[in-house]
Amino acid sequence: MDIRKCSFVSGYSGNRAGAATHIRESDLLEKKIILATDGFMTKYSESTLRDKLSKENALAIADYIIAMKREINPRPNYII
Prior knowledge:
Blueprint: H1 14-37, H2 44-52, H3 55-72, H4 76-79
Helix pairs in contact: 1-2, 1-3
């Protein structure tokens, strides 16, 4: 058994863990964008969150819209 491949030794987790984390973060962002833009009449907001903003900013905006939808249940015209 190769000691370097054990995840409990010196924090080594290999390349698979990093790739899996990136995929999970990507999926999480995608799901949040879909939730945030659900009910919007155009795809402009969705494409802006996906393509024109950094992932961190898109995640922050998506989280804000999701929270607003949960707390005050605004009309779609108010959000857009």
